[in-house]
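Hi there,

I know you've been waiting on this one. I reran it after we fixed the sequence typo, so this is the corrected version. Both the input and the resulting structure follow.
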Amino acid sequence: MNAISTYTTILETSYRLFAEHGFDKTSMTMIAKEVGLSKPALYYHFSSKEAIIQTLFEELCKSIGFSSFFRIEAYTKDNFEETFIADGLQIIHKQQTDMYYSRILNQYQALGYRDPAYSLKLVQILEGFTAGFAELLAHGVSIGAIAALDVLTKAQMLTMIIDSMDNFMSYGLTYSYENIWTTAVKSLIKGDPA
């Protein structure tokens, strides 16, 4: 294995093991064995289990931020509603197709009770969604795709919907998430109250 693929394999394996067994019950020995490395070789890449947990968290945060799903520059007057719906559906599909996502995110939320740096970062991601939605909605108003509206309230509502769906999926509830998101966006585009 070369350095880059070994590093990636360690992170991918750790992601799975942490989701399956939790942070506390997953050891460096388990990770090394699953990857096919000696413990000293694993320690060459990561100085500790906590370093792996931190690196995974940073990678996870990059992958779930607002700009990972919504690209404001792609929105036009003609495609605004369709693109808004499609971009939100990407979030739902990502969680539905990654069987470890909910479990690992729950691990980080629990870790946030012991280490506020984790909970602070998760709150920042939610605030990033609110700011991103506000910017996207203001863009929609400026290009005439949607009527003027209370941008901040609607942005907060959309963030709450995204976060609630994330939580409901993590509990295994089989709601019609695609329809919920589509209905929320369409009511917003039409200017209906939320």
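Quick highlight: The chain has a mean pLDDT of 92.

Best,
R. S.
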